[in-house]
Write the structure tokens for this entry.
Amino acid sequence: MRMAEILHRLGYVREGHLVSVTRDDLVGQYIGHTAPKTKEVIKKAMGGVLFIDEAYYLYKPENERDYGAESIEILLQTMENNREDLVVILAGYKDRMDKFFHSNPGMRSRIAHHIDFPDYGPDELVAIAKLMLESQNYCFSAAGEEAFGKYIRLRMKSEHFANARSVRNALDRARLRQANRLFSGTKKSLSKTDLITLEAEDILASRVFLESTLDNESNTKNKK
């Protein structure tokens, strides 16, 4: 969205609107279905920016009956013929995007700019978490923030860690644990501070800490 706004202000696109799609918006399930879907999306994006998230799912060479290749061909033709009136941004995880481009020479030659966004660091993710909580009128206690920092460092080791998305999901679960703690406890009256503050126990109850403990115990037994 920011890129669409910037390109519009610089005069590179007429309207500056963003059309965000995935494979399901472009590829049909039967013969003759893909072309109309892809062309309709492109029509909506003309004069602005077409953003294709997880673009590598467009190409499935292992499936002979998959119609993703047809969508790619239409995109390539449109990108070539409408260079002055359409910006296409394809996004996804770096390793999968590299494989996608290597499998599609035409796409690789037409996408000149490749930008690699490095993962956030632990401190940056904690800062993002605090901004997310602030937007929801929540906050960490000092101990809660310290616990969340530990959580992030463990969670980043996971294969499916997704940066800010994982932070948002973790906060949602922590808020549920906080609500259960508050309303199942013995304290009768709750202050506003109680209601809006995530404590360390709300974070430390995550299964991430349990899995880390089990892994450490397993490693200790193996060493013995």
